[in-house]
Design goal:
The protein is α/β, with parallel strands linked by helices. It is built from 23 helices and 19 strands.
């Protein structure tokens, strides 16, 4: 046989082989690892990937902006303990998604940002490719791990590493860089299938040392005024029964941080949420469970905490480097929260002493005093509404619908809602988290509806809503059961500031007076309602939640209501220099 004939036969044999490509390998790897939903924005070079993933049975939710798709993926990770997937185009699209990735890492939400990218040989020589950018180098400082896949045979390993990195240890964000040429690479289908990896035990339990558990219990037992603080890490752990057992068996007052509200109901007799200032200042032993002593807890020091060095801290965290980050931790317990809390409960045995009655009685009295002071403000049915009257109506909605998910962001809208709206079930309150960033609202609301199937109530300040408001079209397009309430007081903090220089420009914090955000929802086929009193607000929200239709309620709030930066005005520096 001639060499030409042999070559022809070899080519024919190769042509008869079953082949696969990078598109299919990425999809198959994701499906093998249980990925059911991708959040993203289509475009070059991942347009066909989105179409093919949808055809393969993965739900692909297309947003109007990558940052909001990324926020959706991040909160999906928090709710499910599996990495949420965000898919973006290269360069600017990647950068938009990177904001959400960094926020996910800071908040310990497992998320994978997958972005198409330009080819390495062109990027490395800076030859000016379409949307040229060294995305891997940019992502690395802002996430937990970052990987690039150059060969189709490595797709399975690359995705497996990304999944394991996102959920193991302290969860966080992972970047996966997929250059455009990778998608069109072809290989033998059998070899491709064998190259895929199903991740086994992606987040193995990390058991605490027995000595650490014993030490923590000894410190806790010696306390005269103990306090347990529950953070969103405790909510993420889904160790709800063990946490309840620890709190109730110890009898110790507990303070839930905002996204830990509902681990035990806010109406629980041991909840100290309404006596926050008292318990932080007067406690002598504080046990932190999935909470960090960052700015949200005044770093564990200062006047918030009373006399300097007057407290002993016990901390439960999976990350040993978290210990002693702000103050001395006398009893560090390192491990996953479920294992640590279960070990503490087991170590308490059946004869754990009751919490000191004078302490629990003082906390109860302060809580009841503060609740009584607040009650009349929440019952006010005025027009225009103030924040307390409006939140009082929404407080009743959540009490009557404890299974609904509350998404909350803003300045005054956020800060006041944290204290006013009681939560009754875990992982039902989603808000701005550690960085306190605005713009998470619509992404969180969309993912919450998709991942849980539960109705969502998104309570937004008018400024916060502006960051992601265009995603109301996404909510309408996918017909999601999301009710958005925009607290509209015509501006940031207040709608009454004036331009000190005079002239026609408005003050920097003022919006268009009496805007009708409800009409935005109507433009996309959703329900829009304008309300002016708490009673009207309650009726409108009930109707929306009953119908399950996308709804936006424009709640007119008194423009004079609100304070500078909500309750964190001390973080907003004021000039002390007066110009002549």
């Amino acid at each position: 046989m001639s060499a030409t004939a042999q070559s022809t036969d070899a080519n024919a044999a190769a042509g008869e082989q079953d082949l696969t490509d990078g598109f299919h390998l990425v999809i198959d790897a994701l499906k093998l690892n249980g990925v059911k939903t991708i959040y993203g924005v289509p475009g070059i070079p991942i347009t066909d990937f989105g179409r093919m993933a949808q055809a393969a049975g993965i739900r692909v939710v297309s947003f109007r902006h990558e940052q909001h798709a990324g926020n959706a993926a991040a909160i999906a990770g928090f709710l499910t303990k599996r990495p949420g997937i965000c898919l973006t185009v290269s360069a600017p699209g990647f950068l938009n998604g990177l904001t959400a990735l960094a926020n996910a890492t800071t908040n310990c939400f497992p998320m994978i940002l997958i972005s198409g990218s330009s080819e390495r040989e062109i990027v490395d020589l800076a030859q000016g490719d379409y949307e040229e950018m060294d995305q891997l180098a940019i992502a690395k400082p802002l996430c937990k791990a970052a990987f690039r896949v150059l060969h189709a045979a490595d797709i399975g390993i690359g995705i497996a590493r990304a999944i394991r990195a996102a959920v193991s240890g302290r969860p966080g964000g992972v970047y996966l860089d997929l250059p455009a040429k990778l998608f069109s690479q072809v290989m033998n289908a059998d070899a491709g299938a064998k190259s895929l990896v199903k991740v086994v035990d992606a987040a193995p339990a990390q058991i605490p040392a027995p000595a650490a558990v014993k030490r923590a219990l000894e410190v806790l037992k010696g306390a005269k005024r103990p306090l347990i603080i529950l953070g969103k890490g405790a909510a993420y752990a889904q160790a709800d029964d063990a946490i309840r057992a620890l709190v109730e068996r110890s009898g110790i007052p507990f303070l839930p941080m905002s996204m830990a509200k509902g681990l035990l109901p806010d109406t629980h007799p041991q909840c100290a949420g309404a006596a926050r200032s008292t318990v932080l200042k007067d406690s002598d032993v504080v046990m932190l469970i999935g909470a960090r002593l960052n700015w949200l807890l005044s770093h564990g020091k200062g006047k918030t905490w009373g006399a300097p060095h007057s407290k002993k801290f016990i901390q439960i965290d999976i990350e040993p480097r978290e210990m002693d980050s702000n103050v001395e931790i006398v009893a560090p317990v390192v491990g996953d929260i479920g294992s640590c809390v279960s070990a503490l409960v087991d170590g308490m045995g059946g004869n754990w002493p009751a919490a000191p009655a004078d302490w629990t009685g003082a906390v109860k009295a302060k809580r009841e005093e503060n609740v009584a002071k607040m009650a009349p403000r929440l019952m006010k049915n005025s027009a225009p509404m103030d924040f307390h009257g409006a939140l009082g109506a929404l407080r009743t909605v959540i009490k009557e619908r404890p299974d609904a998910i509350l998404v909350n962001e803003g300045a005054n809208t956020l800060d006041l809602a944290r204290g006013v709206i009681d939560m009754y079930q875990p992982r039902k309150r989603l808000d701005v988290g550690t960085w306190g960033v605005m713009g998470i609202g619509m992404g969180f609301a969309i993912a919450a509806a998709i991942e849980t199937g539960k109705p969502v109530l998104a309570v937004e300040g008018d400024s916060a809503f502006g960051f992601s408001g265009m995603e109301v079209e996404t909510i309408c397009r996918y017909k999601l059961p999301v009710c958005i309430v925009v607290f509209n007081n015509n501006g940031i903090y207040r709608g009454t500031d004036v331009n000190a220089a005079g002239g026609s420009d408005p003050a920097t914090t003022v919006f268009v007076k009496d805007s009708r955000y409800d009409m935005m929802m109507q433009a996309f086929g959703g329900v829009g309602v304008h309300v002016t009193t708490p009673d009207e607000l309650k009726r409108a929200v009930d109707a929306a939640m009953d119908s399950g239709k996308p709804t936006l309620i424009n709640a007119a709030i008194d423009p004079t209501a609100g304070s500078e930066s909500g309750r964190i005005g001390n973080l907003n520096p004021q000039s002390v220099v007066k110009k002549k």
